[in-house]
Amino acid sequence: MLECAPSAVSERHQEATLATDERFELAIESLVAGLDYVRAAPRGEGPLELIACRPAVDERIEVEAAELDIQGGLVGDSWSTRGTSPNPKAQVTVMSARAAAVIAVDRSRWALAGDQLYVDLDLSPGNLPPGTRLSIGSAVLEVTDQPHLGCAKFTSRFGAAARELVNSPEGLALNLRGINTRVVEGGALRRGDDGTLVDTVATRIVAWLRTFEEYGIPADRAQVAKLIGSDGKRLATVVAEAAGHALDSGRAEEIDRRAGEIYGELNTDPNVLAGATELLQSLDAHGLRWAIATSSRSEQVEASVTALRLSRRPKVIDGSHVEHAKPAPDLLLHAARELDVEPSRCWYVGDSVWDMKAAGAAGMLAIGVATGSATAQELEDAGASFTAGELTELIPLVRGL
């Protein structure tokens, strides 16, 4: 276990230093002038610039390496011992390194903000909405919906203007004060490790939200999340209609293609869902035919397929192969024909409501895996005959066939 402890490569900040230094307290105009620098942060991947452990209230230790634990958060940090019941939605706080640079001015004062991780990444809700997963080192964090705001201590350390800015609509739109996260996969991390968006569902949501913003169509995350997995043109049309915009087929196609382009820019090095590669290898080992059926465009699929590191190229049936993607059964029926298997003898595994509806329409056994934006109950309501929390739970079923 790597613990937060002082060493030759760490710095300790004691309570006496946690006060405003007027040399570094900026006026609101100077702080606002630095916002363009914050906005220019990388959106898909950026380095972890600083790790700050808080072994006690008003104490900071900067370390080169640390470990994140699912139960305790940052190992050696006082989060788990603060108060009678630590907030699980605020297990690990993350601040933009650029925001820290603008607000704290001097790098030696970043840790006074009180956050544990400082990463050079766009932390805005448009880029990292709640539910997004962020990989740093071998650990994975999930952004929660717990607001992170400037408080009295923040004012005492950086001044009233800094607190006013981070809590303003402009500051909240950038998450200047930072984000709250929880640990979903424990692991080690070091300063310099890249923070990377890893959840393809969350990445797809971000891509769609940016696309709708470009086209001037109001949309929110919850609305888009419920449509992930369905035909892209249908998704564009449904969201646009809800916002009072009518789309013809050509415009819907254009928006779908643009969302795919943005997704491709973000999905450069996706993490594989736990058990995915092992499940597919198990299918091969037992002589069971399988294919990937996805509503995505072919150019969006390549990075995810490559990340599986399979010994052979799988059959991939994407949205370009059919006129109507999910929830229509066309994709699944096409895949069954490619595999030369009757649909009634097929299992279809998916993580969205649209997957389950498409499987039912195709006459296939629908198996839901609650790794996307849909809950197990929502998958069951949409027709799943069986649900699992992750793909690893399906491997014993394959071995028992």
Describe this structure in words.
Mean pLDDT is 86; it is low at 5-20. The chain has 401 residues and is an alpha+beta fold. The chain has three domains: 11-197, PK beta-barrel domain-like (M1 Pyruvate Kinase, Domain 3, Beta Barrel), CATH 2.40.33.20; 201-266, DNA polymerase, domain 1, CATH 1.10.150; 276-399, Rossmann fold (3-Layer(aba) Sandwich), CATH 3.40.50.1000. Helix 4 (152-158) crosses helix 5 and helix 9 packs across helix 10 (249-266). It contains 16 helices and 17 strands. The strands form four sheets. Strands 2-7-6-10-9-8-12 form a seven-stranded mixed beta barrel. A three-stranded antiparallel sheet has the order 5-4-11, with no helix packed on it.
What distinguishing features does this structure have?
DNA polymerase, domain 1; 401 residues; three-stranded antiparallel β-sheet; seven-stranded mixed beta barrel; 16 helices; 3 domains; globular; Rossmann fold; 35% helix; alpha+beta; M1 Pyruvate Kinase, Domain 3
Topology:
Elements: E1 11-13, H1 28-33, H2 35-39, E2 45-53, E3 60-63, E4 65-69, E5 73-74, E6 92-96, H3 97-104, E7 117-119, E8 133-136, E9 139-143, H4 152-158, H5 160-166, H6 169-174, E10 179-185, E11 187-190, E12 194-197, H7 200-214, H8 221-225, H9 232-242, H10 249-266, H11 276-285, E13 292-293, H12 298-307, E14 316-317, H13 330-339, E15 347-350, H14 353-362, E16 365-369, H15 376-381, E17 386-388, H16 395-399
Parallel strand pairs: 6-7, 13-14, 15-16, 16-17
Antiparallel strand pairs: 1-3, 2-3, 2-7, 2-12, 4-5, 4-11, 6-10, 8-9, 8-12, 9-10
Helix pairs in contact: 4-5, 7-10, 9-10
